[in-house]
Amino acid sequence: MKRTYPFLVGVTGGLGSGKSTVCHFFSEMGCRLFESDRVAKELQLCDPEVIKGIRELFGSNVYSKDGSGKLELDRKKIAATVFSAPDKLEALNRLIHPGVSREFRKAVVEAEQQGTKILVKEAAILFESGSNEGLDAVIVVVADEHERLERAVQKGMGQREEIMRRMATQWPQEKLMAKADYVLFNQGSFDELKKETEALYGMLLVAAASACESH
Predict the structure, then answer these.
(1) Of 129, 103, 122, 142, which is closest to residue 13 (Cα–Cα)?
(2) Which domain, by its residues, includes 22?
(3) What is the separation, in whole angstroms, between the first and last Cα of the chain?
(4) In whole angstroms, how far apart are CA 122 and each of 10, 38, 41, 98, 215?
(5) What is the pLDDT of residues 96-121, one digit of tens each?
(6) What is the CATH number of the domain that holds 81?
């Protein structure tokens, strides 16, 4: 049976590596983009089971309502807890991961129906969560640790000490690179990163065509 598109590509990398920028470039080139972290945040505000689980893990007071009655989540409070309590971080990931996987399967079906050639799945903890399973290729974006820290600070992701604690909870870049099909080094300018991404996109198109022809 001949395989149909889409070709499924995972993109991951440590905090401040530039993976979101790479995914933005892929989107501009015509790839469909599935942002796991954005979907996870949405589930925390709309999925009853996830909301219930978060309340049990962190207490009901992490949720509140704004002036219009819209549910809000104190993400800073949760972040402060999970990055000093790895067991709670693992429990939170286990709680959210099934919903993200469900939404990704929907995205795959939609991409197939629309004839999308490449579907890119961006995920901060792609390997850690096991969500690399079933993907055709995985790209790891890497950068100098000092540069990553500076980018994260500039983006307002927190104080330096807080960001360094978050980085320490993630897999080392060497471990990610060992599992990657492609490694994209974000060591230069914005334009240089775009050129590198364009070159990699060409390689992915060839791989996608080959995968579909061989089935």
Answers:
(1) 142
(2) 7-209
(3) 6
(4) 6, 9, 14, 16, 26
(5) 999 999 999 999 999 999 999 999 99
(6) 3.40.50.300
- Number of domain units in the chain: 1
- Is residue 215, in this structure, part of any structural domain at all? no
Q: Measure the CA–CA gap between 190 and 21, rounded to whole angstroms.
A: 9
For residue 19, give both structure tokens: 């993976």
How far apart are alpha carbons 208 and 136 in whole angstroms?
Answer: 9
**107 contacts: CB under 8 Å, gap ≥ 6:** 32, 34, 119
Tokens 């983006």 -> residue? 155
Domain assignment of residue 171, yes or no: yes
Question: Quick check: is 71 in a domain?
Answer: yes
Residue 167, H or E segment? helix 160-169
Cβ partners under 8 Å of residue 83, min gap 6? 89, 162, 165, 166, 169
Burial class (CB in 10 A: 0-12, 13-18, 19+), 123: buried
**Judging by DSSP bridges, how do beta strands 32-35 and 182-185 pair with one another?**
unpaired
In a domain, 158, yes or no: yes
Per-residue pLDDT tens for 128-170? 999 999 999 999 999 999 999 998 998 888 888 888 888 888 8
Which one, of 121, 91, 117, lies nearest residue 104 by Cα? 121
Q: 30-45, pLDDT tens digit by residue?
A: 999 999 999 999 999 9
Reduced to 3 states, what is the DSSP secondary structure of residue 8?
A: strand
| Overall residue count recorded for the chain in this entry | 215
Q: What is the largest CA-CA distance in the chain?
A: 56
